Amino acid sequence: MERSPTFAASFDDPRITEQFCRRIAGAPNDLVLLGVVHDHPASVARVERVLEAVEPDVLALELPPAAIPLYRAYARDGASPPRFGGEMSAAISAAADATVTGIDAPNWTFLRRLVSRLIADRTSPSTVRRLFSSLGGATREALRCRLAATLTRATSMTVARDDPVEYECSHDASPERQAAHERSHVASVQALLGGVAPDDALVYRDETREECMVDRLEEIRSRADVVAVVGVDHLEPIATALST
């Protein structure tokens, strides 16, 4: 399998570049991988434009499966882009005929793999405590999404999981302005994180999440065309794993 260098360039849009958009060629189906910045106008536009062009059988989102019903509800609100859910609900709205699946933790596959790795590495008790504290928060968040989806379906109100992130760049800004702002934002965050020693607990969590997402994407690609939307920090490791 090899990465096509021409896919992003086929779009006349500065928001769709190799930094954020990869096509992973392979048998029997190709996979398009989109990296996003949560709620950023450039990311919302990127998923909308690519999904309108590609029309995949399956849309895979970096969300836990329990959160998918809520983002489906957000996608149905009639606004363009949807008022809530950022690039994830925008992706669902743009891929109306696709099967939507959540590929992120928490799930049983992730937990089994994580526990096996912790035991094999003889991980320190302090790291394990920090790790499972973060997982507890993620599990509670997934359950809140499920509850919010139930309330949204059962009532006339939309239950927002959180307030949208606001940037100094709007959905009405030009594609060039959106693209430049997003690149600057990503560079600033990466520079900030680059000066901080990584937490072992978060490394275990994120590496295991990525491994599980790669396995899930490989399984989906074996039977269908797929577009996957993931956080931009996960784009490179997932693309590399899928290309080997």
TrEMBL record:
This is TraB family protein. It comes from Natronococcus pandeyae.
